[in-house]
Fold this sequence. Notes:
Helix content: 25-40%
Number of domains: 1
Low-confidence stretches: 1-9, 12-16
Strand content: 15-25%
Bound molecules: 6-phosphogluconic acid
Number of strands: 9
CATH topology: Rossmann fold
Amino acid sequence: MTHRGGEARREPPxxxxxxxVVLPDLAQAAASAGERLARRCALAVAGRGECAIALxxxxxxxxxxxxxxxxxxxxxxxxxxxxxxxxxxxxxxPQDPRSNFRMAxxxxxxxxxxxxxxxxxxxxxxxxxEAAAEAYAALLREHxxxxxxxxxxxxxVLLGLGEDAHTASLFPGAPVLREARRPVVAYQVPHLGMSxxxxxxxxxxxxxxxxxxxAGAQKAQALWAVLEGPRDPDRVxxxxxxxxxxxxxxxxxxxxxxxxxxxxxx
Length: 266
Ligand code: 6PG
């Protein structure tokens, strides 16, 4: 899928318009994120009969996925009308301990009544990376509503934050940060020595809601850099998340927020 070139792009709202919710610990931050996801899914299903979400990888979301798989959220979320995608995936098979799919499958998807055909794993291990990325983009085009400018629109995207301020698999200095036409890209990440597949900034920024879940003192510097440091999205990739029309909320624990001067406004 390519963006219909030539159309003027509205300047996204400043990052200062993002909402910040600071909770004492990861458990409470996960509960808050779970509540937001449940509300967004109810809104989407009421509006168009289904809800499309993109899951984050790494370790932090495990606490959220456990919440979503437990009562009361397990019963509140209309799993049979939810469609699950991933924001990014490592170039490993689905049974590999590093797989984002495997983590979500174990912590959440095997514990809720979501039909298998509504779970769309990112095939980042495929050798034909470009074709695999295009096939995933075709899935987005098939199952997500399209914005007026043609980009697929998620109802909610869950993201994490790396200590280097990367999000999804958008790493500092990576050419993919400047991708303006493809919604999904697969590429070799030099400093990791592995391939990744990732949603790109335009499709992330067309989501109705972006929820960052960040926890731990080791993220304090990165979180400050994103929210209060100089604007430099090439060096601080998560600054590139500026929804065109949707909302972005940072749900963080006190340890991750320890460097911030601004307080909660969520
Ligand atoms: C991945 C993730 C990545 C993650 C951050 C934070 O595949 O690693 O998608 O973007 O969200 O690296 O990871 P932790 O939550 O494990 O610190």
